[in-house]
Each structure stands twice: as C-alpha cells, then as structure tokens.
Amino acid sequence: MAKPKSFVKNISIENAKKAHNCQHNSKHRIFAGDVRVKLKDGRTVEYFCVNCALDTIQRDITRLEEIKQYLEMNNL
Question: Would the CA dihedral through 53, 55, 61, 64 be positive or negative?
C-alpha cells in the first residue's frame, strides 16, 4: 500500500549556521545557533524565525480545521 500523501509542505527545524534575516520579516534577525524553521518547496528553501513560523503554523491549523469541518459536514 502506498504511503499517504501529506498536505503539509516539507518543513523541518534546525539551528542556523550563520546569521541572516527571516524570510517573512527582514526585521527579524536569526543569529548563528538560533533555532529556525526550514521550508522547502521544490528547489526553493526559505528560513523563518520561530515567531513568524508559529504565526504561520497557527494560521495553517485554523485553515485546515475549516477545510476539515467543511468536508465533514458535506460528506454524504
């Protein structure tokens, strides 16, 4: 049996090797050794600070819950 696909993109958590800005908000600085979230979409890789990642994850959870509720109500 095939492995079920995921609607969640390829994300991982890692420590930054060098300092750089968050992809979402350039005012947020990620320093070497800080935890960051890595989002890989095809060949593109983006890195987010923890605060921006948490905000985005919460929005995604809310959206997925809305989709789930819609599907459950309309599953005849």
Answer: negative
